[in-house]
Design brief:
Blueprint (H helix, E strand, L loop, with lengths): L20 H9 L15 H12 L4 E5 L4 E4 L21 H4 L4 H12 L5 E7 L2 E3 L2 E3 L2 E12 L2 E11 L1 H18 L2 H8 L5 E6 L4 E5 L1 H7 L10 H4 L8 H11 L3 E12 L2 E15 L5 E10 L1 H24 L2 E6 L5 E3 L1 H6 L10 H5 L4 H17 L3 E8 L6 E11 L8 E8 L1 H39 L5 H32 L6 E5 H12 L7 E4 L6 E5 H17 L6 E9 L2 E7 L7 H4 L23 H11 L3 E7 L3 E9 L3
Parallel strand pairs: 19-21
Antiparallel strand pairs: 1-2, 1-7, 3-6, 4-5, 6-7, 8-9, 8-12, 10-11, 11-12, 13-14, 13-17, 15-16, 16-17, 18-20, 21-22, 22-24, 23-24
Helix pairs in contact: 14-15, 16-17, 17-19
GO cellular component, one term: plasma membrane
Protein name: histidine kinase
Catalytic activity: ATP + protein L-histidine = ADP + protein N-phospho-L-histidine
Length: 661
């Protein structure tokens, strides 16, 4: 079934408001006709474009527009307004009405930009604002830029900003800590010795090492003999690195310097090694304000940085591998169901790489007869945490090309700060699937052609056996009966291949009827008993169980499980069959005392053509299609099959089916 592209009902201006999270939704729903800007369809192209860019940006952005300075902002800016403050009424509000507490500070900046002045830039500037039910000291790094409404005509001011309150407060705490340490050299020396961070005191512009704790000596790879020496002599490998110039600038300017994840090459164990640290150079000043020394406080983070770089490298290698393999990837937030497919994933489903595509858009390209099966498999994988693996066809959205894909996924539970997500890969298996279909068509054709002469041969054998029973030629009678048994085996095998061909092509027919499952089990057991020469077969007490299914195919499932139990159990062992009702489900089990199955083989047991290969099974006939057919038949009935097994003890195969309505 092909889906037809929906005709968009959006007006042209609405496309600029697509997405944008919470603020996108608020902007779309706002009644702009009650503002001086009027309804969006009257807005200029410049305003619409600016709002579209702003809403989709992940960087905090704010916009004032028009003579009344009407306000817009995006999701990234939203946290800066606090929980109980200006949001959401700030949207569409006039600037002066929204920011009375800071209007005298920011209005001159706005006027400067609108009057043709250069864009402004302010770093770590204190601008107190009212939020969280109180006036807070808030620090910002921001830029004000003019946005023209028409050539040469200013329309508004775009603010790109980042709140730096936490950074400023942290730096102040560090500076205060260092200042407190510097107040008393004796106290500083005492704290230097066993501090978990690297601390050193340099005096004079020559940077004489007056004090150094154990940690900094360990980082430098030096002993206490360096104390009293100039830094350039004590640690000569720093000579061609930027640190001496930075230290000299701190000494001459009296301004502290903060380094973040800075790499230094230090001689450790007679070789240069990379050392990463976050550090501060804090000048020490006398009563006249003159710099007399510098304190170094450093937190060594080499292991963390190297570990992060290894992760980044592994992620890059994974990305390159995925691109080289030409597979699609996808990620879905379990809570919000937000779906993020890769460009290749979109292409596999017939979408353009740059298109916005949702989970429903993807599943709608799956033919109707497979769609619910895929959606159910996804929900089951999310609910159970089990791996997701499924093959299905798709029809391209734009190109209408038919493809086959295989999807592999897994649920990743939530971790600290990260919500649970369901993600995986999608592979194009069209060529492989076409080969399989050609093979199945061939198997089906050959099996069908063999079935006709085999049916005739079976009829002749039955006639001959009936005639020979009237004679006393026991040898010929026995030979004919053995031949008849082999013909039945071949018929069963050919029927299996035919059923596989029908299953693979989706043409298997189910002749549904309501019948007693317990009675069917008894009939199959009676048919099986003539082959039980060396085993005992028992049926536990079974109450009447009514189901609605294809009686012949469910019978073949029971017969196959009994046949396997007989084949894989040593002579003299027991086989037990049980049938019971559990809620709205009928459950049947076949238990043997055979050789058991290894755990690794259990995962593949119901795959097509899979056989457990051991020294015990090499002389047992079979093609590995029986359990696969059982699994597919039960799946088509809304049931399931599973097994529990222990090596040397035996196996119990279970299957379940819904009860009749």
């Amino acid at each position: 079934m092909h889906s037809t592209p929906e005709i968009s009902s959006q007006t042209p201006h609405q496309t600029y408001f697509d997405g944008g999270g919470e603020m996108g939704a608020l902007t779309r729903d706002y009644d702009w006709s009650k503002t001086v800007l009027g309804p969006p369809e009257q807005w200029s192209q410049s305003l619409l474009t600016t709002i579209g860019i702003m809403l989709k940006s992940r960087f905090p952005m704010f916009l004032w527009w028009g003579t009344e300075l009407i306000q817009f902002y995006n999701d990234a800016y939203r946290p800066s307004l606090g929980n109980e403050g200006k949001h959401p009424k700030a949207l569409g509000q006039q600037g002066e009405e929204c920011w009375p507490e800071i209007w005298p500070v920011i209005k001159p900046l706005i006027d400067q930009v609108l009057s043709g002045g250069e864009s402004t830039w302010s770093e770590d500037q204190l601008i107190p604002i009212y939020r969280n039910n109180r006036l807070e000291d808030v620090y910002w790094t921001f830029s004000y830029s003019k946005v023209n409404d028409a050539p040469g005509k200013p329309g508004g001011v775009l603010v790109i900003c980042s709140e730096t309150t936490e950074k400023v407060n942290t730096m102040r705490k560090i500076e205060n800590t260092i200042s407190e340490l510097a107040e008393s050299e004796s106290r500083l020396r005492f704290m230097l010795a066993d501090a978990p961070v690297a601390i050193a005191l340099f005096t004079g512009r020559a940077l004489i090492i007056e004090a150094a704790n154990k940690k900094v000596l360990e980082v430098w790879g030096k002993g206490e003999e360096v104390i009293g020496k100039p830094l350039h002599i004590a640690v000569p490998e720093l000579k061609d690195q930027p640190f001496f110039q930075i230290l000299d600038d701190v000494f001459t300017t009296g301004q502290s310097f903060h380094g973040n994840e800075v790499k230094a090459m230090l001689e450790l164990n007679h070789k240069l090694e990379e050392v990463y640290s976050n550090f501060v150079y804090q000048p020490l000043k006398n009563v006249n304000g003159e710099t007399t020394g510098i304190v170094l406080v450093a937190n060594v983070i080499t292991e963390q940085v190297i570990a992060r770089k290894k992760v980044e490298q592994a992620e890059e290698m994974l990305r390159l591998s995925i691109e080289a393999a030409n597979v699609g990837t996808w990620h879905m937030d379990v809570d919000t169901r937000k779906f993020s497919p890769s460009s290749r994933m979109k292409e596999l489903y017939g979408f353009d790489p740059e298109e916005e595509v949702s989970y429903d858009d993807i599943t709608n390209q799956i033919p109707e007869e497979y769609r619910n099966k895929v959606r159910l498999a996804v929900e089951q994988a999310i609910a159970s945490g089990e791996s997701y693996s499924i093959e299905h066809p798709v029809t391209g959205y734009h190109d209408q090309t038919s493809r086959w894909v295989r999807a592999l996924g897994k649920l990743y539970p939530d971790t600290a700060g990260h919500p649970a997500h369901f993600s995986g890969l999608t592979l194009d298996i069209t060529e492989q699937k076409q080969d399989e279909m050609r093979k199945n068509d061939f198997i089906g054709m050959v099996s069908h052609e063999l079935k006709t002469p085999l049916t005739s041969l079976n009829g002749y054998l039955q006639l001959l056996i009936a005639r020979m029973k009237k004679s006393e030629d026991t040898f010929t009678t026995g030979s004919l009966e053995k031949a008849h048994a082999q013909v039945k085996k071949m018929s069963t095998m050919i029927n299996g291949f035919l059923n596989i061909s029908r299953l693979e092509s989706g043409k298997i027919h189910l002749d549904m009827e309501t019948f007693d499952l317990d009675q069917l089990i008894r009939e199959i057991i009676e048919e099986t008993k003539p082959t039980l020469q060396h085993h005992s077969l028992t049926l536990s007490p079974c109450h009447p169980v009514s189901i609605h299914a294809d009686r012949e195919k469910i019978g073949s499932v029971i017969s196959n499980l009994l046949s396997n139990a007989i084949k894989y159990s040593p002579k003299g062992k027991k086989i037990e069959v049980n049938c019971q009702i559990k809620g709205e489900i009928a459950e049947v089990s076949v238990k043997d005392e055979g050789m058991g199955i290894k755990p690794l083989a259990l995962e593949k047991l119901f795959e097509r053509f899979y056989r457990v290969e051991t020294k015990h099974t090499q002389n047992i006939s079979g093609f590995g299609i029986g359990l696969y057919l059982c699994s597919e038949i039960l799946l088509h009935h809304g049931g399931k099959i599973w097994v529990k097994s222990e090596i040397g003890v035996g196996s119990t195969f279970y299957f379940s089916l819904p009860l009749a309505p």
